[in-house]
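Deviation from plan, reported transparently: adenosine-5'-triphosphate complex.
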Amino acid sequence: MLYSEVAATYEAMEATTKRLELTQLLADLIVKTPNELVDKVIYLTQGKIHPDFMGIEIGLADRSVMRAIAFTSGHSLKEIEKKYYHFGDIGSVAEDLLQNKGQITLFSEQLTIERVHDVLDRIAKASGLGSLGLRLRLLNRLLADASPKEAKYILRTATGKLRLGIADYTVLDALALAFTNDKGNRPKIERAYNLSGDLGLVANNLALNGLKKIEKFHIKLGHPIRPMLAERLDSGKAILEKMGGTAALEYKLDGERVQISCDSHKFWIFSRRLENITSQYPDLVELSKSNLKGKEYVVEGEVVAIDINTGAYLPFQELMHRRRKHGVEKAVNDYPVSINFFDILFLNGKDLTGLPYQKRRNILVDIVKDDARVNIVPSKVATTVEEIEEFMASAITDGCEGLVVKDQKSVYRAGAREFAWIKLKREYNGEITDSLDLIVVGAFHGRGRRKGKYGAFLLASYDPVNNDFRTVCKVGTGFSDENLIKFFNILIPIKIPNKPNNVVSKIDADVWFNPQVVIEVMGSEITLSSVHTVAMDTVRKGNGLALRFPKFMGRIRSDKGVSDSTSNTELLKMYKRQKKLISKHSDNTH
Ligand code: ATP
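Because the crystal trials were delayed, the predicted structure below was used instead.
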């Protein structure tokens, strides 16, 4: 199949942000694609060459790519830099220069999907010290045969900037449409995705074996299972009612969620975002080897930084020192961690996700040997509000954020946020006590002490139905000088177009960013707002929702992607819950 077909679809995708249209365009492309290539088309369309958990990224820098364009187009680096300054996007620079160069040579060979994927894969795998020359030579050869439009998309992919706005949901809908002609089949396909974290693999299975086989999809060791997530409620009473009078309470530890997959002697550690973080935690591999019984397993737990002398939990920020590629050994010594298991999903050939929580927990207790660094998360079965309050108090005293309350009868629902798990953070009394994870979409220039940096940020939440980002608040408090420097360095404004198409905002920021960075903020309440656009027209016509008095909590949630941020529906629920609490409060006082 020719890459030009893919490039033409990308161009059409760029012209819309409407999810239905994007889904249809992708479904049409999948239908045209030979079955054995569907996985590659899916990866490429999401700007990747492999699923994220494989950790293979092309990641060429724009600056290096300029050299390849100079070679292919015959223009000087200076000219290219000037164009780059104008367009702000390396893909558009190549398209423009190659267009001016005129017709491609007669000897050029039309690019196929296989070739583009294969060369990008080789470029990615050739990464490392001294490999840049080889990578650029590979890229040059590809560009020599590319049309201007193809060059644009190849370069955006090679620099990690192909942002077509194709979310996982859109791919799942498109697969259902393309292979079964019925979006209603999406849950069956989604189940396989939840168990493998690999859309390409699922697409490939569907294309080659059909829907019947997909329904029998099994967990694969070494592939991350999408995490089960918790809903929020504001009181022990509400939780007990929801769970039918009895519930299992667990400490909510404040660390990093990990999933450890073991196949005999091979280990993989996955983050909450399904990235492969095995190399950051060699100590967890050793601890799993020594403290877990079983040849094959998938377990989940929270890694927490600890004080090695007292064993006390340390704040989440300490774990940031472990997010590094080099000097891991030293970091392992300087920043010791404990692993606190809370679930088991697979053991010795058996998928345990269909077992009720209490059975899984019993199996976990059976296979884990506790010691100073390896624990099972403290738990307790409760039937009264007092028991919940008491356990909450000890969780807080022990340095936890609160509790995760679990329905004892519930199976493990991969990828779902439901009331089978409910998080409870201290007491709610009409004010928000839980933080929100919001996406930075824009910024405002700083004044006074913040001159030369950003002074405030425009935050948004992701709307999966409309596939766009809608503003929630402007935040300027809670930032240390160090934070401000960091934000200035990591948030690079986009140049063209001014505001990304997929950001819905009534506020004009000074600079705009591609929605990527998720930060944790706290606010006093959620109010109706004519300025902010999240959940627009849902509660009242002409009004969205806004977070009042937002404050940055000091944490960039690099463990979360934009689709893991606090969603518009969660905000709406929080708004409604808060309204109920406020009216209850005023009832009590009158
Ligand atoms: P948060 O932002 O509150 O960490 P989240 O969006 O990452 O939440 P939720 O499902 O809302 O995920 O909350 C559960 C999270 O709490 C898990 O992802 C995990 O990192 C953490 N956690 C800590 N202790 C537990 C526990 N005992 N059981 C399950 N999750 C736990």
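Residues 227, 229-230, 250-253, 257, 272, 302, 342, 377, 404, 423, 437 surround adenosine-5'-triphosphate (CB under 6 Å). We consider this an acceptable substitute for the interim report.
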